[in-house]
Every structure is written in C-alpha cells, then in structure tokens.
Design goal:
The protein is of the alpha/beta class. It has 12 helices and 12 strands. It is globular. The chain binds pyridoxal-5'-phosphate. Pyridoxal-5'-phosphate (PLP) binds at residues 70-72, 75, 100, 102, 147, 151, 176, 178-179, 199, 201, 210, 324.
C-alpha cells in the first residue's frame, strides 16, 4: 500500500515549483541582498518579488511584510514587541486556553515579568464567548492575541467581532493565522487586525521561513537585533532561498485557493461521513461549520490513541493525536481539555489534516482500513479488561 500523508497541519511537503524557484538562490544567485554590486542586486529583486507575492495572498502592502524564521518567531516578535512598546502605560493581555505554545508560552513569560494575563476558555464546540471577552477587557488591556484557526480542531475564531472590540478600545490585536493562511481566504485589507502570522512550512514552502504582517503605523521593536534588514524590524542576512520559496508558495496558494478549498472540503466531509457510517461510538471535536476545510478531529470511544497511531503508521498512514509540538509528550491535549473532553476521551482522539497532495483514493483507503483496526483495538481492550477481572 502506498504511504498516505494526512498530517498537513503539522507540516506540508515543499511544492515542486517552490523548490524549482528556490534552487538558483543556493549557487548562481548567492549574493547578499544588501550588497550593491551585481551579486546583490538580482537577489534583492527576488526578495522584492517574494514580498509582493506574500502581500498579494493576504492583501496587504509589501511594506507591511516582515520575513522571519517561521510562525513561532513571528508570534514572539508580535507579542513581546507589543508588550515592549505599550507595556509602560498598560499592563493587561488577553489570550485563550487553546493557543499554540508559541503564544501560550510568550504570555507566560510576560506574566512572570509582571503583566496581567487573562486566558479565555472555549465552549464544547471550541468557540469563544464574546460577552466573556468583552467583560474581560479592562482599562489596562493593551493586547489581545487569538488564533485564526486551531491547529488541533480547525475551529475558526470570529475575527471581525474580536477585532472590532479591540479596535474601538485602542487594544492591539494579534491574529495567529499560521493554520489559516493558504487554507482559507484572509484579507488583511479589511480585517480589523494589527498583525498576522505566516509559517512557510504549513503552505508548501520550506521549514524555517515565515512572515509577520504588521499594519503600517504600528510601532513594533525588533525581537532580533543587529543590522537594518526588514526595515529595521528583523535583523540578520535574509534567508533568501526560503523567502523566494515562501513567495512562490503564496502565489500558488492564491491561484489555487478557490478550487482547493472545495476539493479538500469534499474529501474531508467524505472521510468524516465514511467514518461515522462505518464505526460506532465516534465523536467529532470542534464546531461542525466554523472549521478549516481540511481538518477532522475525532474521538473513538474505548480506543487508546497510541495503538491506533501505531497500527495506522504500520500500513503507511500518517495522522496525529493533536499538535505536532506535543506529539512526543504523553500529556493530554490542552485544546481538547478546554473543549470539555475528559482525559480518556481526549486520549482517544486523532486529527486528520488533509492537503493539496491528497486524493479521493487516499480517503477511500482510510475509510476501508480504519473500521477493522478500530474493532481490533476495541476487542483487545475488552479482552484485557476481562482478564483483569478474572
Ligand atoms: C496555530 C499555530 N501557530 C504557530 C505555529 C508555529 O509555527 P512554526 O512551526 O512555523 O514555528 C503553529 C505550528 O504548528 C501553529 O499551528
């Protein structure tokens, strides 16, 4: 059986055209974009084009794009930079219980430094309560940071409502859009947000490249100090090949977005329907509609997820039990716990995340092989329990 990769929220393969676009920048076009001689000028042009390609995907001005090493750096820059620029007058931050560790841990650090922090919970669908958000805002609130789309469940937060609440009160609003960019349309031109985060490896560019989109006029000191690169917002000689790759990936995502959304959503829905029809005692986690088109998080009652992942991996099917960052640890998912799942149910949940390289054939295969695997694991569990009783 051919390998099937259904873990695209963890990372994606580099698109062939992205790799092709990057190749010259390792040898022939090796210059430093800051150099004024011939070797620098072609490279500088390529960085400018990539900036325009990223800007075009999210509808911002190229001057609002700051290239970084990825989503985590963009988030750290946004949160710590906002605290540094506004923290002298204001001291309170708001985030949610279901954020990526880059957000969660950046705020924990600010909390240790003396900032006030409110972490909002979510309901059983993974949604925020806007009235609770409203009542959590104080005179001292300087920043709200929430995610566009949850990496584990795919649940989408209501950006317009949160952004408007923040804007009318002069609160900075950081929108961690790492999982959303390239999967759903995001329009920085009309969204009431100050900053968006982008991670290359989630949209078929390489790992180690990303961007922070910063609304023009927002004051944001750099996290990484040094030279004047990125308009003094991020020092260090540019990762040119990565930047070119990210630009190309954004161009491809923009061109294919409308088509891919429908194709991927249809496949995800077929997978979900196929599982529900063939396997008893399953539960979908997260809002059924307000969800990324590619993500399905599902609990299988009385199934120990490690056995399931191992059995699937043995036949070449790659899925995960929640986020890639926590895959090594055996901790129960913070996200699923926030949705109110007990630890046994949270431990019986897996995430399928589809991508542009998947086909309906992949989905048909999973629907065929999964029911006997689940049945086998459930039977094994029953006989273990029976043995323990005897
Ligand atoms: C929602 C979200 N934010 C941020 C990140 C971090 O991105 P990166 O891996 O580029 O550091 C991830 C990665 O999984 C994510 O899912």
């Amino acid at each position: 059986m051919k390998n099937i990769y259904l873990d695209n929220n963890a990372t994606t393969p580099v698109h062939e055209k992205v790799l092709e676009a990057m190749m010259p920048f390792f040898r022939e076009a090796f210059g430093n974009p800051s150099s004024i001689h011939w070797a620098g000028s072609t490279v500088k042009k390529a960085v400018t084009t990539a900036r325009e390609q990223v800007a075009s995907l999210v509808n911002c001005s190229p001057s609002e794009v700051v290239f970084t090493s990825g989503g985590s750096e963009s988030i750290n820059t946004a949160i710590k930079g906002t605290a540094a620029s506004r923290g002298k007058e204001l001291s309170h931050c708001i985030t949610t219980m279901v954020e990526h560790p880059a957000v969660f841990n950046s705020f924990q650090q600010l909390k240790r430094q003396g900032f006030g922090l409110s972490c909002l919970g979510v309901d059983r669908d993974g949604m925020l309560d806007l009235d609770e958000l409203k009542s959590t805002i104080t005179e001292q609130t300087m920043m709200i940071s929430v995610m566009a789309a949850n990496n584990e469940t795919g649940v989408l937060f209501p950006v317009k409502e949160i952004g408007e609440l923040a804007a009318t009160r002069g609160i900075s609003f950081i929108f961690d859009s790492v999982q959303a960019i390239g999967k759903i349309p995001l329009d920085f031109g009309t969204l009431p947000v100050d900053m968006l985060t982008v991670s290359g490896h989630k949209l078929h560019a390489p790992k180690g490249i990303g961007a922070l989109i910063v609304r023009s006029g927002v004051r944001l000191p750099p996290l990484i100090l040094g030279g004047p690169q990125e308009n003094n917002r991020r020092a260090g000689t540019e990762n040119v090949s990565g930047i070119v790759g990210l630009g190309k990936a954004c161009e491809i995502a923009r061109n294919d977005l409308d088509y891919e959304i429908v194709r991927i959503r249809n496949m995800r829905n077929a997978l979900e329907q196929g599982i529900i029809e063939r396997i008893p005692n399953v539960k979908i986690n997260g809002h059924m509609d307000k969800r990324l088109p590619n993500t399905l998080n599902i609990s299988f009652k009385e199934v120990y997820v490690e056995s399931l992942l191992t059995d699937l991996n043995r036949i070449g099917i790659a899925v995960s039990a929640g986020s890639a960052c926590s895959a090594e640890s055996r901790e129960v998912s913070r996200v699923l716990t926030a949705l109110g799942l007990d630890s046994t149910t949270a431990r019986s949940s897996i995430r399928f995340s589809l991508g542009r390289e998947n086909s309906q054939e992949d989905i048909d295969t999973v629907i065929e092989v999964l029911p006997p695997i689940i049945e086998k694991i459930r039977n094994e569990r029953q006989s273990q329990l029976a043995k323990r009783k005897n």
